[in-house]
Amino acid sequence: MSKQVQEVLCNLIITGDExxxxxxxxxxxxxxxxxxxxxxxxxxxxxxxxxxxxAAEALGNIGDSTAxxxxxxxxxxxxxxxxxxxxxEALSKIDSPETITPLLQIAETNPENIIWDETNEWNAWxxxxxxxxxxxxxxxIPEAVPIFSAILTDEDSQDIESEILTALAQIGxxxxxxxxxxLTTGTPKQRRRAATALGLSKSSASRKxxxxxxxxxxxxxxxxxxxxxxxxxxxxxxxxxxxxLNDPEPQMRQAVIxxxxxxxxxxxxxxxxxxxxxxxxxxxxxxxYDTEIPRKSLEIIRSCLTDKNNNVVAATxxxxxxxxxxxxxxxxLQILSDTNRDVILRSQIATALGMLGNLEVVNILTWAIGDKxxxxxxxxxxxxxxxxxxxxxxxxxxxxxxxxxxxxxxGNTVAPTITQEPETTQETSPDSENSSNPEDSPVNNHxxxxxxxxxxxSNQEVTVDKGSTELLxxxxxxxxxxxxxxxxxxxxxxxxxxxEQQIDIATDVRYLSANILGNSDKPEAITALIEVLNDxxxxxxxEAITALGHIAKRSPNIEALTNAIEEIINNLKIDNMRLVCxxxxxxLGGQNTVLFNYLQDAEPSIRVQVINSLVNVDTKHADKFIxxxxxxxxxxxxAAAEMxxxxxxxxxxxxxxxxxxxxxxxxxRHIGKNLAxxxxxQSITQLLQKLxxxxxxxxxxxxxxxxxxxMLKERA
Length: 716
Known about the structure:
The chain is an all-alpha fold.
């Protein structure tokens, strides 16, 4: 069958018009058909420039050395710059020593007979030269070094310095020596580029030169050198690299950190948390995220919670929360409750509180659900869902995180609850007798915490239980009192804000809650979402149906989901709801009868979604999809073709081929891939027949593209 395709394409190269010749040449090249080389060589001399270019590209893709003489002849004699460029690219793809000399010549000399573009502003040789430089570097040709050196010193040459330096590094030897010389004696720009290129070298000489460049007066050179050392096996130079953690430039210190993260220990990074530059501190904190941190370093990290930079504070909170450091609970509560703090910071603090795995934070998160800023509201809801996913055991908690989210979905105001103050006890660890220093306590110890003051919305009063009142009178707990003061001020401020925007915030919280509940597989979450499917707010219904879709996609066998089907079908009657309803019904499965009613919907996106949502379709419905192969919308035609492939309905091959000619043939390659999956042999037979039937080269182009895709898929 492949021989037959080859013969047809080769014949088109001879008998067809320029479109036939172009597309046949391209296809033969992609199919790497060696037998087509004589025909392609003939096309190198074609009067149509596009045909000659496509023939050169095809010969390069085939990669056979027998084409080199013909390619060199075109390189020498064809005056068209685009053809010459295509020939150089073809030569670069052929693995043969015969290509080296012409590539060296192209890198060094502008061909005499080349034609500039019509504006006389661009010489195609510049493209050819750049191609040659890259190939000679990749092939590691030492003879190219003197040529590259001459280009670098030629003031009239094009600016391809970076590419030449990269090629020199790839070549190594004398090329690397030239790079090291420029790194030592060049201008700052030359030194920086040389340092960057040496990152590709693997020799000890290059590493030594880069290590010395760390002392360069120019910070950009130092940064380039440190990055290049990072690309190599720089472990022997770790001590030297670490010295530059004290570099006066913060950009350099940050670059050093990025390199030493994989080479050094947390103990070597912790001192940088006292750096004056917040970016350096943030980088260190993020680098420590997945490392084992010594106990003695925790207090240094905790001190960063009071940093003036919000990024530093957020990174600290997330790091310590990941370590389950319960000692940061009250500082985080203080930050979240301060509505004057940065919104992004407060949202990240809410995320950290969810990571802590402590149900004591449910109160503050419940309060934060009503925050003025949506970013904070969403983060608080996400944090509550994260706590719910941890399935924590705390019988004293009056309301669970999931119950809070469900209540907000229903539009109910949830007042944060008051829990009894736990008795203060001193936990002892196995090594407590040998360690009295607080810095040596294990990260996962849960120090006794007070019951945090309830923070409520609107005009509700703040109440304090007896245990909390006694605790607040303890002068040693000044941080708790400070928190309470801040919280009360923010409640007073919040009363006014919430009253003015209560409707908008409350409505938005319902939307967000519906979205968040899509992350829960618990029956009560599903039931709550189903209950709002007939709510007066259509957007809330939309969010709930979308959430149910997420649950069904993730866990389609949950029995409670079946209770949603009837209400979702009822919502199908609403125009703006159809798409999400159809998608969710598809995830729920077993709803083909309902979905078929929307295959002819006026909206193309609905038709596509219906096709994608159908499951376990019987072949008796194949005609429905064959009809859709002539749909005016390209996406519908593609989806219909994919469904016929799923059905393994080979009788649709002819219709799939014909669908390509609808409108503009834009789906030719997409259909070709589908035909290859459905049945390659039958598809090729019908495509060859179609090639003879279509009236002109524009149509033959589409058939050739389909043939090409089928053949490529079959060979793979």
